[in-house]
Specification:
The protein is built from nine helices and ten strands. By secondary structure, it is α/β, with parallel strands linked by helices. Strand 7, helix 6 and strand 8 form a beta-alpha-beta unit. The termini are far apart.
Amino acid sequence: MTKRFGAKVVLDAVDLTVPVGESLVVLGKSGVGKSVLVKHLIGLLEPDAGSVRVLGDDLWAVPSRRRDELRRRFGMSFQEGALFDSLSVGENIAFPLKRHTKMTKGEVRDRVAECLEAVRLPGMEAKRTSELSGGMRRRVGFARAIALKPEILLFDEPTTGLDPINTDVLVRVITELNHRMNPTMVTITHDLSVAFAVAERVALLDEGRIRADLPPREFETSPDPRVRAFVLGDSSLEDARTAPEEVSP
């Protein structure tokens, strides 16, 4: 698929397949188009050329109702959690359940509790999102992403700006969700330690194209100069880092 914004080609004939049940990590420097790629996967952006196929269907060739059905088979965790600050933690997680299901109040309450347990935040339903540390906000975002028991999970820069302790917690939560749900999983990141911890396959996006697509061990030892530059931490390939967040429990 190809995507342009004005004269800038962000995705240049990207060809990428994720088998059912696989955990793929897409690496790339800041501004290379990783988030644009993931927004195409969930149907938030339409490619200028090419297609996006989900479970056998072309997202932009099917009727809008079918496209909406396919989108509900995704769980998406956005950067920074993207929570509703006017709602409590429990209300944030319950939002998709109330909108897309006919579950009773008791069933919603039980599912919210189950999701919080899955991300290591039991009993946090009544907390206000403004009271949460950065790492906790991300985990609440994860809980909301899994509320509808999706078949496909997308994580967009899940650890950006977090300190090593919070990063380790989030990596363990992602790994546990993978084992618990066995979803098809795509994680967008610039952090090699995160990539190698959660990936079964690693792809490098650079200058609009997938330049490498390998198992983690092969990626780490690849002789490809673009891969070597990324693995060795060439300063031209590093993302800007924000200040570490406060450690969450």
